[in-house]
Specification:
single chain; 4 helices; 15% strand; elongated
Length: 100
């Protein structure tokens, strides 16, 4: 797959753990759970850098983009994303695909 959206494809199989498909999501969620903790009512902290957020979803996006070093390819055009959220938004807006 191409890197940084250059849309090149080298013909190699993609490791399912890196694509965060059905099974990969569980691994990513487990990593995030190990890197975050609740520190108060509606307050979540990243245990890697100390960032605190009032929204758990925002902290998950933070951890995915900054601490997990994910490479999540679009299965249509092979553009690479660092979070599941941005990949899903791309699939919905660019390719008209929604899994919901």
């Amino acid at each position: 797959y191409g890197q940084y959206g250059d849309q090149g494809y080298d013909g190699q199989m993609i490791d399912p753990n890196m694509t965060a498909g059905a099974d990969g999501n569980k691994g990513i969620d487990a990593q995030i759970a190990g890197m975050s903790r609740q520190v108060g009512c509606r307050r979540w902290e990243c245990t890697e850098c100390g960032k605190v957020s009032g929204q758990r979803t925002d902290l998950k996006k933070h951890i995915e983009s900054l601490h997990l070093n994910l490479n999540l390819p679009c299965h249509v055009c092979f553009m690479i994303f660092r979070t599941r959220h941005t990949r899903h938004a791309h699939l919905r807006t660019v390719h008209g695909i929604s899994n919901k």
